């Protein structure tokens, strides 16, 4: 996770974005119910 900010690779960015989107989806799904 150190080179995520140092020199971001495309794979790391995609994983980071998808993981954040998944967390956001879970949180919003929990709040709506």
Task: Give an account of the 3D structure.
The protein has one domain (3-32). The mean pLDDT is 79. The chain is 82% helix and 0% strand. By secondary structure, the chain is an all-alpha fold. The chain has two helices and no strands. The chain crosses the membrane at residues 13-32. Keywords: Membrane, Transmembrane, Transmembrane helix.
What are the main properties of this structure?
33 residues, mainly alpha, rod-shaped
Strand percentage:
under 5%
Kindly, what is the distance between the CA atoms of the first and last residues, rounded to a whole number of angstroms? 33 Å
Query: Total strand count, please?
Result: 0
Number of domains: 1
> Percentage of helical residues?
over 70%
**What's the helix count?**
2
Largest sheet: none
Radius of gyration from the alpha-carbon trace, in angstroms: 13 Å
**Outline type:** rod-shaped
Structural class: mainly alpha
Weakly predicted, low-confidence segments: none
What's the rounded overall pLDDT mean?
79
N-to-C series of helices and strands: HH
Transmembrane segments: 13-32
Keywords: Membrane, Transmembrane, Transmembrane helix
Compact summary:
The protein is mostly helical and 33 residues long. Helices cover 82% and strands 0% of the residues.
Write the layout of secondary structure elements.
Layout: H1 3-6, H2 10-32
